[in-house]
Amino acid sequence: MTAALPAVDRPARRRSVAAGGLTRVSGLGLGVAMIWFSLLVLVPLVAVVVTAVEGGWSTFATQLTTEQTRAAVLLTVLTALGVTLVNVVMGTLIAWVLVRDDFFGKRVLEVMIDIPFALPTIVAGLVLLSLYGPESPLGVDIANERPAVFLAFLFVTLPFIVRTVQPVLAELDREVEEAAASLGASRFTTFRRVTLPSITPAIAAGAALSFARGVSEYGSLVLLSGNLPMKTEVASVRMLSSIENDNLPGATAVATVLLFVSLVVIVAFDLLQRRLVRRG
Amino acid sequence: MTTRPWSRARALAAIAVAGLMVLSACGGDDDSGDGGAGGDTTLSIVGFAVPEAANTAIAEEWAKTPEGEGVRFETSYGASGDQSRAVENGQPADYVHFSVTSDVTRLVDAGLVADTWDDGENKGVVSTSVVVFAVRPGNPLGIEDWDDLTQDGVEIVTPNPASSGAARWNALAAWGQVIEAGGSEEEAEQYVNDLYANAVSLPNSGRDATQAFTSGTGDVFLTYENEAILARQNGEDFEYIVPETTLLIENPGAVLEDADPKAESWLEFVLGEEGQRQFALKGFRPLGDPNGESIDVEVEGANDPAEPFPAVTNLLTVAEDFGSWSDLSDTFFDEESGIVTAAIAASGNAE
Question: For A20, A23, A278, B330, which has the most beta carbons within 10 A of its beta carbon?
Fold first, then answer.
């Protein structure tokens, strides 16, 4: 759903600017949107940050100087980044296959892509544990090792880039590519100079979603990762430990750090995307 | 052109109204569970995950008595600490049943439970069990006692005492048995360090830990006797060992201050013979009788169903060996200075 947003909001913005200010209707729309957004996102986020700040600077300092917490935050952020990079390649590839190729079972694959969204994460965790745990029928046992975290992140973030790139790719004018080809561009050049710039914003949007989801993931990995300190413990588990000790400021301090890192990364994705598009 | 904005405005208004209705419907939920006036009463039970099966069985028995007839239940089960915090933050409850005392004292501090809640003969405890070792069928590593757990190469699964209050019983048992055997506090600390250094998985709750162990992780699963029995009742294939020295797990229960009057008679029934018999059937040891001498039940899933609760030679208790929960929480589980917290952090650097 989120995927459609960037495409939809652009023409709308242009129209209201052209009209020179807000009409009553778009004013109402904006009001509803802001109230909705505030209730669901802004207020909870501010509450998190306020709780963290109330704990004072020392809470941040304590949390961040704890080796175990630092390791957990690093593992979470780096794994989420790595997973996002893999998704950028694999997600785009899957979207490409779904849009450009016709093959038996395409419809099934199309539906299956969304399963990681639909599956409760704890069920996903159970499935991953039975498939890639000590009793793996595939002979792959990565339980309680770092790849377990990577795999769980991969599983839950797979649909994001596929679903953001797919509609953009489907709307793309094939004639432009054909024109490029007829002018002598190789397939790769056509992809790099013509197709890729058009889908880069969609890839970036999907990458941001994928990263954000990875950073916050908990349910699907707890069973497989084993929560081993310094090794497989992720930030959400550290927060849970603080909450269990009634240390809400401590938990929100870690959350605030993650929020900040996510913000930086998402802004970075956007800047990178703009640069790539400009260069064409 | 002239009519379109209006229809769009109406659509937006409809969406806004629908949104408000959803919001108010969510808010309305909070009122349920207050219990209806007159004939039928609804009691809200909020508890940790483990005693759900037992509580359901007890409720069925209670419904057969004059007091319990026609009483309906609304139940909510989950991680002990989460449940306690939910009640603290307004989740309606008449009766709470938690894993550790500190989850009830949180409600006492919030003014929701009278501070006399543990003055009774049972000291606020409603269900008891002991810490045991679950092992693979046939006990291939020959695990018998605590010392066997810290041998090189023994892989241990136990819930994470940092994030799961219930898992703290296991950590305390590990510490207490060293002291009981005449060891010093340094030796006890060393033992706890060694134990967690052997941990291959530290799931966030007892249930997750059971899942990890039954899915093949680890050699030994440090758990509660009732959890082991329940898993075996559900067809899981493993054995468990009751060590010579272990800790009595005492799960507290309490009626809230402004609870329905029926809640008191429910608690009485839970503490009574029939209530404890139902607990025993699900693997809990009877209250005030840890060796199960007063009760004659066949417990499916126990190592020996006819003699389900083997006597423990040295049974440690929190009151006698650790003082109180508030003291031991600071000493062992404090986020910065707790002994067990440190042992878990150190386990990451072991090997």
Answer: A23
